[in-house]
Design a protein that fits this description.
The complex is a heterodimer of chains A (373) and B (655). With 373 residues, chain A is mostly helical. Chain A contains 15 helices and three strands. Helix content of chain B is 36%, strand content 17%. Classes of the chains: A mainly alpha (373), B alpha+beta (655).
């Protein structure tokens, strides 16, 4: 055991997927440059607090990334339920101790920062599902019995988060679980059955489950000109920002849509609009390309995993980052309705960055251990 | 440890699905890439335009409005900076109560109402639009606000340019006023305008008088500039190289042209003082006989046009439109009334020219005349005895002119009246002029479907009945009589100047009609007949029994004619007796039209003194004062030449 550990450690740095790490670093740098623009008005002198805070988050993020990378991921999967329960307790405490912002309670005030339990839950869900799903594989796909437990694990945080209300984050749980379960494989009959149920449930959920503002967002997405000054305003302004960047963009800190505050939430949810406006098609395609490389390298890591747990961790970790990117950029460029989902590695804030770095750390950790046997 | 089964084998189960993952990621990348291409390359120019539209606001740079000057270049209407105190809601949020308190002490406005105004303004126009707390601060108030300003965020003094009418109420109906364009005007004026020149809500345009009639000349052309604003409409600084790429060039404003009027400020002020000093209601116009230039133009009661800039307070507006004496009406041309006895001068000319009488013809006036089944009264109950045409004019004998009316008939009277300028527009370039009315038999048939009654010749011959005229019209007619024939088109704009002071348009006197040589007239009137009537008009203030003999200017022979317009029909013997005791709205209007000097007259003044009971009492003293001010200024040598003992003025109300 001791010997094996040393062997692992010595070869660790060499086996580290350097390209993967470089891509993450590149996205971090792009994120910081872009955040600088988004948080510094024309008249700003010195560095804004948000920018400084974000550099600290990135520092902490990398520490976590390295810790997760170099510690055998088996440790995390073994402790998965402990994390899960602790996080559930935190999530359960939110309605009672939580801080209310914009009419929903999502945060616990820890003094030095606002902790959002639903964000950490995403990465813990990945670990917990990797552990569970790696043990239930069966030829021909999973059946109902095998799915009960993984779905229960997903449903608990899902419901708690919907109640906050935070439909966006809740749907992320669903998306992550959905990706991982589908990856493992589901019996065809069951899949078709689930699809039919979903199609039936959708109108019902629309009718009874959604709040008016949520319905409004969806309707506005389907027809943004419906209410250009109201619900469609953000979407329209974002599309204008992205489109007005043209090929080369308006230049660093010269994006009028963002600098003059036509873009709402420009440092968080609409950070990609800022990038697209100031750096144009070239800038946004470069960034998109880096994500693409990130996912390709990640998936390759998955294919080389030493065991199913590793493969599922890689897939889950990537799913987490992918779905965030997918929903965020999709909404910013007008392909999806407006939901409050940040863009991993680019948006401001630690609540999202740290789980992202942990998720990427898990992928990296899998890559470190690919050739052990 | 736990790796008992072959883990690599296990992972191989997934290999097919990993391929799916690659595909899913690749497809996403392609879709997003296409979308970005579509937005940024395919439609990039369009979205760039919209982003520019977002941040660039077109701003009007209002052109300075032209000034209005008197004939000597003295300013009558000007643009002057005013001082307003404003509070911007956004910056005064925390300190509003405190600010309101201290400002209320300085301005004497209630603190509560200040807070209310600011909050209302915020709700209506947003937090960044300054709310005007008080306009037109005094210098002292400005100084005190400036002293506390820095401790009260959001509190500020602004200096808007204000249209200022230096004569205040005097001449308000002539100058008019400037105010915000109304919704109806907006629609009407923009119909046939190119988009760049369209009016916008909040634009100020001339709403009355010269300001309105010559709005195009005075207004100039607004320029445009572009400012960058943020999402909240605040002006924002941000260096962007291609800042106005997609927008048309900036356009400088083109200042409005100034106008030099024919008005003489001194005469105008004398006229207004004479009018208002005697608390007269009505209109006055003074013209130059030899040119038609208007020297003074007064309508009373009046208002201060400055209050309309940019918007008149509602209660003040309500007061103005509900005033029974209609301050907003331009009584010089907008209202017509029966000319009363002033019309006798016209009938006299007709009678002389038609040879109904000559200078020696006399008629006996017993104080009344029976005609048909009615008795027509003269105002002198005892009668005027034997009177000639000159004496009939001097004493305003009704009986004499009843006889003229019978002899001439309305159609002949009408022909002469029209030749003298009655019953039609004077041709002045101004709005709202009414033409008055000279009736004849055809007119009556058309209007009422009735035959002209012989008795109506009598009443119309003394200026009652259907005849209607305006002060300006009467002034023109009398200027023609004074001139012995020719009279000119009245006008009040002498020159139009551009911003550099160069004359771009110079008006010249234009002869309107001349009955002595049938210029623009149907009938001819011989000069000697003019002389006879002029003699009669001279007697009105210079003869021993003249109706206006109390109103003289020593050294200057003032001529003229008085007239009274009955508002309601009363028994003739009660007409004058009861006038002063009636409610003011039921009292008669008085007319007086005078000119001077007797030889070679230079100025004619017509006064309509509404509800003043009589022309000699109500109109003559005003005419006398205006003409005196003219003589003092332009012909002072006349006053020095003859030193006649000043006759004490007697307050006479009745003729």
């Amino acid at each position: 055991m001791n010997e094996a550990f040393q062997l692992e450690d010595r070869s660790g740095l060499k086996r580290l997927d350097v390209n993967f790490v470089l891509v993450v670093i590149a996205l971090n740098i792009i994120g910081l440059i872009n955040l600088y623009s988004a948080t510094h008005g024309a008249a700003a002198t010195g560095l804004s607090q948000r920018f400084l805070v974000q550099t600290v988050w990135i520092g902490i993020g990398w520490t976590l990334f390295m810790v997760v990378t170099f510690v055998d991921y088996k440790i995390w999967t073994r402790a998965a339920y402990l994390f899960f329960v602790v996080n559930l307790i935190a999530l359960a405490a939110v309605p009672f101790l939580g801080k209310s912002i914009y009419g929903s309670k999502r945060w616990l005030d820890l003094g030095f920062f606002h902790y959002q339990p639903s964000e950490t839950m995403k990465v813990i869900l990945v670990i917990v599902l990797a552990r569970t799903l790696s043990k239930v594989s069966s030829p021909g796909g999973l059946g109902i019995k095998q799915l009960v437990w993984p779905l229960t694990l997903t449903a608990i945080p899902f419901i708690m988060t919907v109640k906050q209300p935070d439909l966006g984050t809740a749907l992320m749980f669903f998306a992550i679980a959905f990706s991982m379960i589908l990856f493992v494989g589901v019996k065809k009959k069951l899949l078709i059955g689930a699809l039919v149920t979903f199609l039936v449930a959708l109108p019902l959920a629309w009718q009874f489950g959604m709040k008016p503002y949520q319905k409004n967002r969806v309707l506005t997405f389907l027809d943004p000109s419906r209410d250009p000054r109201g619900a469609g305003y953000n979407s329209n302004q974002s599309i204008i920002a992205v489109g007005s960047g043209k090929i080369l963009g308006k230049g660093f800190r010269k994006g009028t849509q963002s600098q003059l505050e036509f873009l709402p939430e420009r440092h968080t949810d609409f950070i990609f609009s800022v990038l697209s406006e100031e750096h144009g098609f070239i800038g946004s395609m470069t960034t998109l390309g880096l994500y693409f490389i990130l996912f390709f390298l990640g998936i390759r890591t998955g294919t080389q995993a030493r065991d199913k747990t590793g493969a599922l961790l890689a897939v889950g970790g990537l799913a987490l980052v992918f779905w965030h990117m997918f929903v965020n950029i999709g909404m910013v460029i007008g392909l999806l309705p407006i939901v409050g989902i940040p863009l991993p590695l680019l948006s401001y804030g630690g609540s999202n960055l740290l789980p992202t770095m942990v998720a990427l750390g898990l992928v990296s950790s899998v890559s470190l251990r690919k050739f052990l046997f | 440890m736990s790796y008992l089964s072959n883990p690599e084998e296990q992972v191989k189960d997934y290999s097919e699905r990993f391929k799916l993952l690659y595909i899913a990621v690749a497809v996403t990348f392609v879709i997003f890439g296409i979308r970005l291409w579509y937005l940024q390359l395919f439609r990039g120019t369009e979205y760039r335009f919209w982003s520019e539209e977002n941040r660039i606001k077109r701003q009007k740079v209002p052109a300075p409005r032209g000034m209005i000057l008197d004939r000597e270049g003295r300013v009558l209407v000007d643009n002057q900076p005013g001082f307003d105190v404003v509070i911007t809601p956004q910056y005064s949020q925390k300190t509003l109560d405190e600010t309101a308190k201290i400002v209320s002490e300085i301005l004497g406005v209630e603190a509560k109402s200040i807070v209310k105004m600011v909050k209302q303004g915020k709700r209506k126009d947003g937090a960044f639009k300054p709310v005007i707390i008080k306009k037109n601060l005094t210098r002292d108030e400005v100084a005190r606000i400036e002293r506390i300003r820095l401790n009260h965020p959001g509190l500020r003094i602004t200096m808007p340019i204000k249209r200022t009418y230096l004569l205040k109420e005097n001449g308000a109906q002539l100058f008019g006023y400037v105010g915000e364009i109304t919704k109806r005007q907006l629609k009407k004026f923009n119909e046939d305008r190119v988009p760049e020149e369209r009016f916008e809500q909040g634009d100020l345009i001339g709403q009355n008088g010269i300001e309105s009639f010559y709005d195009e000349t005075l207004r100039g052309r607004d320029g445009t500039s572009y400012v960058q604003v943020d999402a909240f409409g605040r002006e924002a600084q941000l260096e962007v190289p291609d800042i106005f790429q997609n927008f048309q060039q900036l356009q400088d404003s083109e200042p409005g042209k100034s106008m030099i009027l024919t008005i003489d400020r001194d005469i105008q002020e004398a006229a207004y003082n004479a009018f208002v000093g005697t608390e007269r209601i009505g209109g006055l116009v003074a013209i130059e006989n030899k040119t038609g230039k208007i020297l003074a133009w007064v309508s009373s009661p009046s208002f201060d046009p400055s209050h309309f800039w940019p918007k008149i307070p509602h209660d003040e507006w309500v007061k103005l439109i509900n005033d029974p004496f209609k301050p907003l009406r331009n009584k010089v041309i907008q209202d017509h009334h029966a000319p009363g006895s002033t019309f006798k001068a016209i009938v006299a000319l007709a009678a002389l020219q038609e040879k109904v009488i000559d200078i020696n013809t006399t008629h006996f006036c017993p104080g009344y005349l029976r005609f048909g089944r009615r008795t027509y009264h003269c105002h002198a109950r005892g009668g005027h005895g034997n009177v000639s045409i000159v004496q009939a004019l001097e004493r305003s004998c009704n009986v004499f002119f009843f006889k003229m009316g019978i002899a001439l008939g309305i159609n002949k009277i009408a022909k002469y009246a029209r030749a003298l300028g009655m019953g039609s527009l004077t041709g002045i370039k101004f709005k709202n002029e009414v033409p008055g009315l000279i009736p004849d038999t055809d007119w009556k048939k058309k209007r009422f479907g009735e035959e002209w009654q012989p008795g109506e010749n009598l009443s119309n011959a003394i200026g009652q009945g259907f005849i209607l005229t305006t002060p300006l019209q009467l002034a023109m007619t009398f200027s023609g009589i004074a001139n012995g024939g020719p009279y000119y088109k009245p006008y009040f704009i002498d020159k139009i100047l551009n911003v550099d002071g160069q004359v771009v348009k110079q008006m010249e006197p234009e002869l309107s009609r001349n009955p002595t040589n049938k210029l623009n007239t149907e009938v001819q009137i011989d000069p000697q007949n003019y002389e006879i009537v002029r003699k009669g008009l001279w007697s009105v203030s210079n003869g021993e029994r003249g109706t206006a003999k109390w109103y003289k200017i020593p050294g200057v022979e003032l001529s003229g004619k008085s007239g009274t317009t009955q508002i309601i029909s009363l028994a003739p013997d009660q007409v004058y007796v009861k006038c002063k005791t009636r409610p003011i709205q039921l009292r008669h209007h008085g007319w007086f039209v005078g000119y001077a000097p007797y030889k070679n007259p230079e100025i004619t003044v017509a006064v309509l003194a509404e509800h003043s009971c009589s022309g000699s009492g109500g109109g003559a003293p005003v005419v006398r004062d205006v003409i005196r001010s003219y003589i003092e200024k332009y012909r002072p040598e006349l006053l020095k030449k003859k030193r006649v003992a000043v006759i004490k003025e007697i307050e006479v109300q009745d003729e």
